[in-house]
Amino acid sequence: MDTYFAPAEKSKDDELNAEIGIVCRNPVMEGLLCSVSGLLAVLNEHRQLVALNDTFMQMLGIQDAQQAFGLRLGEAMECIHAHDEPGGCGTTKFCPTCGAAVAIVSSLTRDRPVERMCALSAEKGGKVVDIALLVRSYPTKIDGKTFLLLFLQDMTKEQQRAALERTFFHDVNNMLSSLVWASELLIQDSPSVLAMNIYEASLRLQAEVAAQRCLSQNGSFTYQTVRHSVTPKQVLAELRAIFASHPAVQRKKIEFCEDCPAVSVNTELSLLLRVLCNMVINALEATGKEGVIRIWSERKGSLLSFMVWNAEEIPQAIALRIFQRNFSTKGQAGRGIGTFSMKLFGEKILGGQVTFSTSREQGTVFTCSLPLQEFTSPLK
Question: Of 299, 294, 289, 306, whose CA–CA distance to 363 is shortest?
Fold first, then answer.
């Protein structure tokens, strides 16, 4: 029988039933099928299903595993190309580029585990849906016969989200670049306070989108900083302006220390402010009505430190995981980014140190420290 990729031959009925019996009677296979919570199937040498777990049956929408026995993966999952050729799944012109087919055939021929990403178009309820599967094929022998353990992970939502994020950030960055360029021309052609405000706002928005893109990444953080010399007095003045009418300050008070060290740091102001704003908001959220938080800066050797204090102690169990991504004392989904971003931007991106201390007697102080420039600024 003709094929574009894998052999078309299938086991005969009696041979298939014997293979199903071998797998079902094996205590190790039985244990795996009962204990693995993800998608798990067992294939014979002809790539046919001879066992599958309950989770896989639920995905296929079947009540009895017998309905899937003898089918190949694409046939069981209703791939729109599975029946393009008489030989079925694995033999069509689409199969040489199918991640699942490549993983299965490669692991059979090489006798070693192979993992691939599979993009599958399946017909479900009269509609074609796109499914992304991470497929790992693991060859094993039972009673002298070769079988494949097939572990599958549904990555559809993750893939869709990643694609949407890439498209979103790509398009938004293009629009922002045009906005920044247009605002620069506006300053040149019609210089005014309004034009400068528009230009500065576009730069802040561009920096914010870059920061959000950095946060959306998982493990491989990339961010191109634009650094300038800034003094602690400038930083605290920006913070004062940000929180002058911030809703988190309602019926609470922020005390700024005006005695700033006469030094400067080379940093990206927008990211530094993001770190400090998260510290301030956390302090305000921990402070009751009519309460006070304090913000100040100090020179500590070769470092310039910004401190945010509130009177409450952080419980030890929470303090141990305060900078962990996705950890939050609040129940809503999507929380646990604020303190994580302090570490990410303050340390990995800006090259500083972000720490905290907490006690019942002294309250809680979050600190962001940055290396000083080699020269000392005369400004205060």
Answer: 294
